[in-house]
């Protein structure tokens, strides 16, 4: 009955389609990213995968702050005692390799008011252990690892840096902190028209080729091209 009603009522179909068309893909993806972070924090809490939340590409701080808020709610059931550590220059990408060029990834699109962002993070992170490591990745994490920054184990990692080179640097940086159950979220996994030699996809594939101690199971997809993996120690 309901199917026949919908099938024969073009006004309802057109109205729903119009409403959906008004919804911004950027907003929809942001909401999906929040849900992905929520899922990752919940799953690691259930499994008691203790460690830090690391975010590469803090930008306006919206997802970083959401992770802190979600952690506080989850901790009403499980005590995870996580540190929240964000990495960003707040000045865009800096120098972009030719192979990393993308029409959306312009420095001007990703410059933010650092003072305003950090003030909001401080407010949201009150009562929690929060660290922001400022600077371009080639200056802050290249040729060093989490051990050099007194970061022990990673619980959830969000790689939201769009391009291959910063994603590669982030993965190499976190290598010693990956443990059984670490969840890594790639926010732009499907960019660059499916080119397997570009973007976060390529950085992750090269990372997997270089390490025999880990295997990663595809956990879930989210939004407009995000994908999550969970680590297993082989």
Describe this structure in words.
- The structure is a single chain.
- With 234 residues, the chain is α/β, with parallel strands linked by helices.
- It has one domain (24-233): Rossmann fold (3-Layer(aba) Sandwich).
- It is 40% helix and 19% strand.
- The protein has eight helices and seven strands; from the N terminus they run αααβαβαβαβαβαββ.
- The protein has a seven-stranded mixed sheet with strand order 3-2-1-4-5-7-6, sandwiched between helices.
- Helix 3 (25-46) packs parallel to helix 4 (62-74) and helix 7 runs parallel beside helix 8.
- The longest helix has 22 residues, at 25-46.
Task: Specify the overall morphology.
Answer: globular
Q: Under the CATH scheme, which class? A: Alpha Beta
**What is the helix content?**
25-40%
Report the order of strands and helices.
HHHEHEHEHEHEHEE
What is the CATH third-level topology name? Rossmann fold
Q: Which runs of at least 5 residues are low in confidence (pLDDT < 50)? A: none
Main sheet overview:
7 strands, mixed
- Estimate the strand proportion: 15-25%
The helix-and-strand class reads alpha/beta
CATH architecture: 3-Layer(aba) Sandwich
Cα-atom Rg, whole angstroms? 19 Å
Number of helices: 8
Write out the strand line-up for the largest beta sheet, numbering strands in chain order: 3-2-1-4-5-7-6
Instruction: Compute the number of strand runs.
Output: 7
Tell me the CATH superfamily: Vaccinia Virus protein VP39
Total separate domains: 1
Mean pLDDT score, rounded? 90
């Amino acid at each position: 009955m309901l199917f026949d009603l919908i099938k024969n009522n073009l006004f309802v179909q057109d109205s729903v389609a119009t409403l959906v068309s008004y919804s911004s893909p950027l907003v929809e993806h942001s909401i999906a990213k929040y849900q992905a972070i929520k899922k990752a924090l919940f799953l690691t809490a259930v499994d008691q995968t203790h460690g830090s939340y690391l975010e590469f590409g803090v930008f306006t701080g919206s997802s970083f702050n959401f992770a802190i808020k979600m952690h506080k709610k989850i901790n009403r059931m499980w005590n995870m005692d996580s540190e929240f550590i964000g990495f960003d220059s707040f000045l865009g990408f800096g120098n972009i390799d030719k192979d990393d060029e993308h029409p959306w990834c312009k420095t001007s699109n990703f410059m933010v008011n650092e003072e305003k962002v950090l003030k909001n993070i401080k407010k949201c992170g009150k009562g929690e252990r929060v660290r922001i490591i400022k600077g371009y990745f080639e200056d802050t994490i290249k040729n060093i690892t989490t051990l050099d920054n007194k970061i022990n184990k990673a619980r959830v990692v969000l790689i939201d840096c769009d391009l291959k080179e910063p994603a590669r640097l982030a993965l190499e940086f976190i290598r010693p902190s990956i443990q059984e159950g670490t969840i890594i979220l790639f926010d732009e996994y499907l960019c660059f028209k499916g080119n397997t030699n570009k973007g976060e996809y390529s950085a992750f594939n090269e990372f997997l080729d270089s390490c025999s101690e880990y295997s990663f199971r595809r956990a879930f997809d989210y939004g407009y091209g995000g994908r999550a993996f969970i680590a297993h120690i082989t």
